[in-house]
Amino acid sequence: MELLLIGMGALSVRSIMQINQRTDKLYEEHVLPTHLLYDLRANSFKMQTAVTWHILTYGTAMMVTQEQEIAALDKAFQALLDGYTPYISSPQEQALYEDIEARWHNVQATREKVLQLSTLYSKDAAADLQRGEGAVRLAAFTVAIQRLIELNKDQAADDHAVSSAQVSDLIHYTLLITVGG
Q1: In angstroms, rounded to a whole number, what is the distance separating the alpha carbons of residues 163 and 154?
Q2: Distance from C-alpha of 165 to C-alpha of 13, rounded to nearest angstrom
Q3: What is the pLDDT of residues 57-105, one digit of tens each?
Q4: Rounded CA gap, 86 and 158, in Å?
Q5: Residue 46 has pLDDT above 70, yes or no
Q6: For the segment 105-154, what is each residue's pLDDT rounded down to a tens digit?
Q7: What is the DSSP-derived secondary structure letter of residue 86?
Q8: Angle 20-25-29 (CA atoms, 0-180°, nearest 5)?
């Protein structure tokens, strides 16, 4: 009887350790990257706000301040984008990541044109470009990020289903040993 209790205790500890490992895996592989993607999306909106303020500003000092803010946001954005790379786990995810990078470069190219027009005090032309081409490219970029977020959620749901099934199996084995013992 004592051996059965020791065996049950060992099996319980092993099961708890496996559950903990699966929980850590879900967090590290799906929650953290999803937060990075949400931060990417938030930074892109901050960037658009800074560009809009640049267009609305007529003072050179304020335009320089906005340009500095945009440069800082660019660095932060690139750090987030680079930070996501280790979490890529499938070819589909890699393709979506590369699409986001390409779309980001499109957004940056349009933004540079807008800022150049705004700096030259062609504020109406800058605003038109921002509302037209800029809005279209930002929307495509945002959709690309959302597709990657959805893929991460789907992968997390799949991993969770597998983990739940394995935990259920462990519980069944423990119950069978208990009843059988």
Answers
A1: 14
A2: 18
A3: 888 888 899 999 999 998 998 999 999 889 888 899 899 999 999 999 9
A4: 20
A5: yes
A6: 999 999 999 999 998 889 899 999 999 999 999 999 999 999 998 998 88
A7: G
A8: 155
The residue to which tokens 């394995």 are assigned: 166
Q: Which two tokens stand for residue 138?
A: 């930002």
DSSP 2-64: HHHHHHHHHHHHHHHHHHHHHHHHHIIIIIHHHHHHHHHHHHHHHHHHHHHHHHH---HHHHH
d(CA 130, CA 113): 9
Please report where in the chains the tokens 């960037």 appear, as a residue. Answer: 47
Q: Which two tokens stand for residue 61?
A: 């000092």
How far apart, in whole angstroms, are the C-alpha atoms of residue 81 and residue 29? 16
The overall longest dimension of the chain from CA atoms, in Å, is: 87
Residue whose tokens read 């289903």 = 161
Residue 111 identity (one-letter amino acid)? R
CB contact at 8 A, 142 and 44: yes
The alpha carbon dihedral of 84, 86, 92, 95 has a sign of: positive
